[in-house]
Amino acid sequence: MTATTLQLEVSAATLQPPSDLSLEVRSSADRADVLRQWKALEQRIGHSGLTCSFDWTEAWLNAYGGLVPHTFLLARDSATETLQGICLVTEGVAQKDGPFSLRTLHVGPAGEPDADSVCVEYNRLLVAPEFESAFAGCIVDHLESRSGFDQWNLDGIATAQLAAFQQHAPELQLRVEPAYGFDFASARAESTDVLSQFRSATRRKVKLSMAAWYDIKVEWAATLDEAVDVFSEMVDLHQARWNAAGKPGSYSSQRFLAFHEELLTRLVPQGRMALVRIQSGSDTIGIVQLLIENRRALLYQCGRSIEDKTRSPGVVVDYLAMEECLRQGLDAYDFLAFATQHKRLLANMSTDIVWARKRHPRLKFVVLDQARRVRSWLRERRDKQ
User: Fold this and answer.
1) Are 141 and 17 a contacting pair, CB within 8 Å?
2) How confident is the model at residue 76 (pLDDT cuts 50, 70, 90)?
3) CATH superfamily of the 185-330 domain
4) pLDDT digits (tens, 9 = 90+) for 152-188
5) CATH number of 13-178+353-374
6) Which helix (H) or strand (E) element contains residue 101?
7) Which residues pair with 87 in a beta bridge?
8) CA–CA separation, 242 vs 253, rounded Å?
9) Rounded to two decimals, what is the model's pTM?
10) Domain with CATH 3.40.630.30 in the chain
11) Higher local confidence (pLDDT), 380 or 207
12) Exposed, middle or buried, 99 (CB in 10 Å: 0-12/13-18/19+)?
């Protein structure tokens, strides 16, 4: 299949990439051919990133590709014409900042409306390591060449790859979110368990919470059939809990649900997704959905019994899931971004995940920034009174 030519409102000179890569822009109509090359590149360079993998990308496109306009960028070594990097670029749908609508571009599987959003974290580039900086430069040049957009975004990007973009766009505005987690290294080195590695106050909390339940069982869904069953129950628990709080819950979005149902069928057989169910007798206390990347369990989603502060189901579920991950030979349990007291309680480490943006000069941004400065000034003045 031949490449589809896109009518970008820039000169040919603007699109000349840095270093020794040539950039090819492909449209959404070329999806099948691009994904074939995507899969081949991933296998050739042995890249283990999850959110830039062929499986994640195709599942995302199957769920969101008809809603979110998108193109593909393919970077080739100019000397050999060998494909060295590939990425998805999307046009945001229903994106807003305050009261203002925004026209946005996004690198990677992002740009969905908030109600449907996957909320990508540890977003990465699929690129041969020696070409990472050059490819980031190609992407920045391409994004800067696209007219009619208010800003472009790097959503939930891994900090290891942020530096490559900052080399070419030092003016990026950053929002850094801590991702708390638990590193199993000490527990494994000392041939002990997770509980013994907690701080004393956390150990007391966990023991009290565990004592409130009886006949506790931990199930690691080992087969696809088991995972489908456990996932279905997790969705029901998740929805019931959020509906009780007067909120729709993530799985009220059919696109979000369809994405995860397909992702499950792809990743569980590869050992890149796991579901862990915690039960007390015949009752389910809670279930966690884990993405597994580089021997790290990433806590993507959960469903648990309606919050009972006297028995702390959240503490019990995460603690037992952590112990099970240690038994399964994983290296860490990562709660992902956005700090809560619950995450801090069970953590012994943290990393950073970044949401970066490059804004173009717009009156709406001047108005927003001024309004936020005034609001901040009023808040400080009120606090001093």
Assistant:
1) yes
2) very high
3) Gcn5-related N-acetyltransferase (GNAT) (3.40.630.30)
4) 999 999 888 999 999 999 999 999 999 999 999 999 9
5) 3.40.630.30
6) strand 100-102
7) 73
8) 13
9) 0.90
10) 13-178+353-374, 185-330
11) 207
12) exposed
